[in-house]
Amino acid sequence: PPPPLTANAFKPKILALTPAKDEDMPSTYADLTKWLFSVEKKYQLDLEHGMSRHPSLSSRMRPILVDWLMEVSTDYRMHRQTLHLTVQYLDRFLASTDLQVEPSMLQCYGTACLSLAMKAEEQRVPTLSELTDFSKDAFTRDQLKQAEIDVLTALGWHLAVPTLFEFLCLVFQRAAVQFPGRFADQTRP
Amino acid sequence: MENYKRKREKQRVKIRTKYEIIGFISSGTYGRVYKARPREGPPIELAIKKFKPEREGEARPTTGISQSACREIGLCRELHHENIVDLCEVVMDDNAIHMVMDYAEFDLLSIMQHHTHHLRKPMSELVIKSILWQLLNGVAYLHANFILQRDLKPANILITSSGVVKVGDMGLARVFRRPFQTLYNGDKVVVTVWYRAPELLLGSRHYTTAIDLWSVGCIFAEMLALRPIFKGEEVKMEKKQIPFQRGQVSKIIEVLGSPTKDQWPTMELMPDFQQMKQFRHY
What we know:
The complex is a heterodimer of chains A (189) and B (282). Chain A is an all-alpha fold and 189 residues long. Chain A has helices at residues 28-42, 47-52, 61-75, 80-96, 103-121, 128-134, 141-155, 164-178, 180-187. In chain A, helix 3 (61-75) packs antiparallel against helix 4. The longest helix of chain A is centred in the middle third of the chain and has 19 residues, at 103-121. The radius of gyration of chain A is 21 Å and the shape is globular. Chain B has a five-stranded antiparallel sheet with strand order 1-2-3-5-4. In chain B, strands 6-8-9 form a three-stranded antiparallel sheet. A two-stranded antiparallel sheet of chain B has the order 7-10. Chain B has nine helices and ten strands. Chain B starts with a helix and ends in a 5-residue tail after the last helix. In chain B, a hairpin with a 2-residue loop joins strand 4 (87-93) and strand 5 (96-102). Chain B has helices at residues 2-11, 15-18, 67-76, 108-119, 125-144, 198-201, 210-225, 246-256, 273-277, and strands at 19-27, 31-38, 46-51, 87-93, 96-102, 106-107, 147-148, 157-159, 165-167, 174-175. Chain A binds chain B through residues 28, 31-32, 35-36, 39, 81, 98-100, 102, 115-116, 119-120, 123, 125-129, 141, 144-145, 148-150, 152-153, 156-160, 162, 166, 169-170, 172-173, 187, 189, and chain B through 1, 4, 7-8, 11, 61-65, 67, 70-71, 73-75, 77-78, 90, 92, 144-146, 175, 177-180, 182, 185-186, 205-206. Chain B: It comes from Coemansia aciculifera.
């Protein structure tokens, strides 16, 4: 009879990525990683600090909003990068805006960030009324339009900033090159 | 809430109070470009690109800030280079977005036309060399920042009165740093047809920085000959179907000869390869 399963029997083999050699990686890989890190550094932010600038927001509100954004982006089959960008815009907005965000307006600003991220990533751009529908009209179209402008101003129009998602893409690309059997077939178009 | 509104109103810069519009440069589907001068500070000339304000009550539902403005400004914001048009400021005023940018006196198209019609002699080698070098310098910078320009043509290559080349109009530009994403998904047709690379003409879903360099090559040839090297006839889009650019492809083959598999090993994998096979062999 086979030996009983114990915790020890479960030993997943974790693939360790070795540093890429020149010959098995496109030369842009190293440059790209370096470039992403350098740009990311410019926009790094302190989450705690961002929330504390808005005294009427409690720390529970951000996770609730992000959760809702995840739900919306899944329901509408948006690209993953759209969600990552949205959350990044939101955090940078909270950390740098001159306005004081009231709890009632947080969802509106979240939607404005989503709208901007969709413009950057998605093929089809949602209309303002579609966006207010997402939140069951918790705010008006005019409020949303103004929120978009407020977010852009606070971000200084720096919209093409790398996200976690882009780093992940690179890791997977490398994995695909190093372990062709495991990844490559699924990633080939 | 009222307080914020008042504060916001105060911060809002009026474009006309900050800049004096002194001329009109061009207009397109995106909006208009004006020549302007700042009211304060050094007396420099600037270009202001005003995106069409979206009107209320239009049949099409409104989408807030326009997507093309978002993309173009988002990209330009990260770019600062001697040979790239610099975005100085973004101003939002009377429902429109204004990009305040470097101003350049000339563009390559008008310089070439000047040589053809007025001077009636070729451009000097030194000038061509300088323009080409600066153009490549700017394009190399874009590529190093993982941006494809995707619309290089003489009209988009601006030249200041002191001879500095500035690559302009990033309206079609796109970042290409995500490896698995095909660029084809975003915009189906890129680059003005005379400057469009063969892989694009054959419907390739993936493409690289090579497409910008093809355009640069075409521009180089055009500077030497003072006429476009591949002046193909554009096939108009019908029923939202992207047509095969028969005229352009055959023009390229007439000039360069039919490509062989040695020169282009993946040629047969191109979606529209069959179309090209029907051409006469050169």
